[in-house]
Specification:
Layout lengths: L3 H9 L1 H22 L9 H6 L1 H15 L8 H14 L5 H17 L5 H30 L9 E10 L4 E8 L13 E6 L8 E6 L9 E6 L11 H8 L6 E4 L16 E6 L3 H14 L5 E7 L8 H10 L6 E7 L4 H6 L4 E2 L4 H11 L4 E5 L2 H13 L7 E4 L9
Parallel strand pairs: 7-8, 7-11, 8-9, 9-10, 11-12
Antiparallel strand pairs: 1-2, 1-6, 2-5, 3-4, 3-6
Helix pairs in contact: 1-7, 2-4, 2-6, 5-7, 6-7
Length: about 400
């Protein structure tokens, strides 16, 4: 429990964090990797270069300061980050290292404004926040280890099959090298794949959604090859998986984790909204609903550039055919830049971006009490969440997954 004077001091630093938060977290990561370069094995270097990790941490520190007297309100965010930490193998011993470098960064960036009272308050606050993370992560790890087929750390998997799903997305069917059982998972969860890539000094870890339903004799991940552009470097991990990994090769996987999961305990209508590779966790949800709750109403709404980049379209068609007699599955496909071939084939329902008007039509068909699951690029998710908020959909009915450091999209 924090002392009242500590809470008062932390709250007084909120305006400072609004201005200097990004500078503090940028310096924090510099100090952290200078003093403990081995921690580079845990982080996504692409997110570091693009500043996404620094922004996410700045947002988290700011949120902690704002809610310092009611930390229970940010526990959902803590649990989401804790899932990621568990999948990466973050240990309790690493938290003091983080705290030391965070306080050092605050001191350096704020200079004389970082008084002993402020640094002391933040040291006390960090110890409470770190204890919350450690407690949640320890509980998650213990719970996972008691689950049949689960494991700690990373386990060797063999690539049984590698299948192109579109022009830039490939699926990998993975089975345990030791022949042991697979841990169950919730539709929407992910695994961390750890890779030692030739020419890279440090290990590369990436989270990939499990794209098939639970209960299969394999895990499936479906990976988009991230091409380089003028403003973005080529994806190191995705390029390696697409170009270098072959059937029969070995990959290291963490046990499934993540809190973006389908609620299977209810039968409310579901609307699955995805764009691009964001369909991967939603495919797991769709296939699970069709297998376990075939009478549950589902709307599957997907946006792709064109037919060449539209992954898993045949799998969705198959689910639709299977449910034709029950009419419980409705699909709507948007192509933002359809080809003439797409137009001739009637391969999509609407052209251009998914609009508020189109979403309102879908919402009307799904009823007032649907649950919405959203995954895709940030701009797409912000649009969808904004449309839903404007339509009065309760926040508790809107669920989303962001591929990368956690950002506030609402």
């Amino acid at each position: 429990m924090l002392k009242p004077e500590t809470i008062e001091i932390i709250k007084s630093t909120v305006p400072v964090l609004e201005v200097h938060g990004k500078a503090i977290t940028t310096r924090f990561y510099e100090k952290l990797f200078e003093s403990h370069p081995e921690l580079l094995n845990l982080f996504n270097h692409g997110n570091q270069k693009q500043g996404r990790q620094q922004t996410a941490l700045a947002n988290a520190v700011y949120a902690a300061a704002v809610h310092i007297d009611r930390l229970h309100e940010i526990m959902p965010a803590v649990k989401g980050i804790a899932h990621k930490h568990r999948s990466l193998g973050v240990t309790p011993e690493q938290y003091p290292i983080v705290g030391e470098n965070l306080l050092g960064a605050i001191s350096e960036v704020l200079g004389d404004a970082a008084t002993p009272e402020i640094l002391g308050a933040w040291e006390e606050a960090y110890s409470v926040i770190a204890a919350a993370f450690i407690g949640v992560e320890t509980e998650m790890a213990d719970e996972a280890l008691h689950q049949p087929g689960s494991w700690a750390g990373f386990r060797k998997f063999t690539v049984r099959r590698k299948t192109a799903e579109s022009g830039n997305i490939t699926s990998f069917y993975l089975v345990p090298e030791d022949g042991g059982p697979l841990a169950a998972f919730e539709p929407g969860q992910y695994v961390t794949v750890q890779m030692s890539i030739p020419g890279r000094e440090h290990l590369v870890n990436r989270q990939y959604s499990l794209s098939d339903r639970p209960g299969q004799p394999y895990y499936r991940i479906s990976v988009k090859k991230e091409a380089g552009t003028d403003t973005r470097v080529e994806g190191v991990a995705s390029t390696y998986l697409h170009e270098a990994v072959r059937e029969g090769d070995t990959l290291l996987l963490s046990a499934p984790a993540g809190d973006f999961t389908l609620n299977r305990s209810v039968d409310t209508p579901v609307v699955l909204l995805s764009a691009g590779v964001g369909l991967t966790p939603l495919m797991s949800m769709l296939r699970t609903i069709r297998a376990e709750q075939p009478a549950r109403s589902v709307a599957f709404i997907h946006s792709a550039a064109d037919g060449r980049l539209h992954a898993m379209k045949d799998a969705v068609k198959d689910e639709g055919t299977a449910s034709a007699a029950e009419t419980c599955l409705r699909t709507h496909i948007c192509y933002t830049q359809p080809t003439e071939e797409d137009k001739a084939a009637g391969a999509f329902h609407s052209e251009g971006r998914l609009t508020a008007e189109k979403l309102k039509e879908i919402m009307a068909e799904s009823g007032e009490h649907a649950d919405y699951y959203i995954c895709g690029p940030v701009s797409f998710m912000r649009d969808m969440i904004g449309y839903l908020q404007e339509s009065g959909v309760p926040a508790a009915s809107v669920h989303y997954e962001f591929f990368g450091p956690s950002l506030n999209l609402q």
